[in-house]
Structure formats: structure tokens, C-alpha cells
């Protein structure tokens, strides 16, 4: 009994410390090194109070470092935010080098036009959403699960129609594994300092404020994900796309290329006989869990009534 409770405390601790940081930015063939042009914290913890100023560009419990660098980006180009468990995690030194697979949820990206990207705090109005991916009920897959499979690379297309100049690029993911009660969602975000050039327009997207864009009661923030979901509502404003009617864009703009994964498909649960064993750190049980109940690697350990996980 004693041994078991000690073990589960250790297992929970190792799970809850497997957070993440947007630590590097890939632009073309260049991967800017850790913290270059990005305000990274040394601690990889989340923001859980959506009403604090720290929901803009992190801070508070995770003090961020400043950077004097600004990263040049072309309008219309797709850049990749690199998510890593810690600032020193690599695929070869950390088994959970992106984020623990229990951390299911959406990915998003926002821009804010600023006068000086190295000093603007990001707090307040001016943010517009340029990328979002949520949950696909037909495959029962979350954006963060795809992000892990994609080695932590989060693709974000800089709209071609926005004005040239300096922006803060806020890449975000939300982990919903404990989001069943208010304040349980874990928000991860960092802000990169970028300089956009080569744009074709001067679009004026409708903007929102951080804090302000999210409420604790949003259906995509407080949600029990350990049930069959037929849809998921990504938090925040509608996605901005060029030609979508915000600002002086021309009708000849190309059709939007950044679209959220469709959430319209009807859910089709795989017959249990075809469910593959879960990978190490994957979910293997819990109330209403319809996925794998065995582990390809490790042993299935109960973490709570809602969540069992494959652990070594
Ligand atoms: C932004 O890019 C433009 C075009 O390359 C350049 O002229 C300008 O100096 C850059 N600004 C900063 C702050 O890097
Ligand atoms: Cu975490």
C-alpha cells in the first residue's frame, strides 16, 4: 500500500513536469537557436489563469528572458515554431522532447503589429489569429498529438496581405488533460520578435486583447476530454485569412491557404480489435476511454479515474 502510493506520486510528478516551451524558430533552412529572438522562460510551466497579463507572452510564474534579436520573415512564408520540453531537450537526450503525450489540445498562432518588437510587452489589444488546429473527431486526434508526431514543428503561415513591419508572433498550445474544472487547462505560449517584409497589402485584421480573448468558461478551455467528443471549439477569435473581408484586401487575393482541420466529419470509433497498444507515455485507460488499454512499451499505470498512462 505504502509502496503503491509512493509510486503513483512519483509517476504523477514525472507527468506533470513534462511541460513545453516554444524555444526556437525555423525560417526557411535556418533554425534560429534557443531563445534567439524569442522571449523564452527557463521554466517550462504553463499559464493557467487566462485573465493575467502573462497570457500574452508568458512571464509571472515563468519569468521570461529578453532578446535583442529580431527575426526576418517574408510575408506569405510558412515558418515553424519548434516546441521542446525544456530549453535543452533534444530528440537524443530526452524521451519526452516535445511534450508529454497526455497533454492533448489545440495549437494556435497569433500576430500583433508593434513599433518595437524587442520591447513591446504584447499585453493588451492588437492580436489576430493566423493559425489554429483543434480536434478531429473522425480520427479522434488532437493538434498536440500531431505536433508530437511532427517532432515538435508547428507550421505557421504569415499572411501575405498584412503590412510590412515588426510583429510579435505568439505561438500557443493548450493542454487539456486536467481541464475538466476551471483553471485546469494549461496554456503554453511564447512570443517571437519578427520583422515581416515583402507583403502585398495593408490588411487591417480585427484584433483581440490578451488578456481578454479567452474566458475560463470558454467551451474550449474548461472541458472534460475524457469522453467521446463530436466536436471541439477552439478558443479565441475567428481565424484571419487574406481576402476574408478585414481591411483593404483586393478580391483577386488567392483563396485562403490556412484552414483549420475540419471538425465536421462524423465520429467513427475504431473497433476495439484494431486499437493498437499505446506508446510509452500514451493513454491506456480511464473512465469512458475508448482507445488502447495495453502498452507497446512500459506498463499501464492508473493516474486518476480519468487517466491511465504507459510508464516505464
Ligand atoms: C525589416 O526588413 C526590412 C526589409 O528587409 C529592412 O529594411 C528593415 O531594416 C528590417 N527591420 C528590422 C528592424 O530588422
Ligand atoms: Cu505539463
UniProtKB/TrEMBL annotation:
EC number: 1.14.99.56
Organism: Amylocarpus encephaloides
Keyword Metal-binding: yes
Superkingdom of origin organism: Eukaryota
Reactions accelerated catalytically: [(1->4)-beta-D-glucosyl]n+m + reduced acceptor + O2 = 4-dehydro-beta-D-glucosyl-[(1->4)-beta-D-glucosyl]n-1 + [(1->4)-beta-D-glucosyl]m + acceptor + H2O
A biological-process GO annotation: cellulose catabolic process
Entry protein name: AA9 family lytic polysaccharide monooxygenase
The keyword Metal-binding belongs to this UniProt entry's keyword annotation: yes
Locations listed in the record: Secreted
Alphabetical keyword list: Carbohydrate metabolism, Cellulose degradation, Copper, Disulfide bond, Glycoprotein, Metal-binding, Monooxygenase, Oxidoreductase, Polysaccharide degradation, Secreted, Signal
Gene Ontology terms: cellular component: extracellular region
Domain statement: Has a modular structure: an endo-beta-1,4-glucanase catalytic module at the N-terminus, a linker rich in serines and threonines, and a C-terminal carbohydrate-binding module (CBM).
CBM1 domain span: 276-311
Composition bias, Low complexity: 247-274
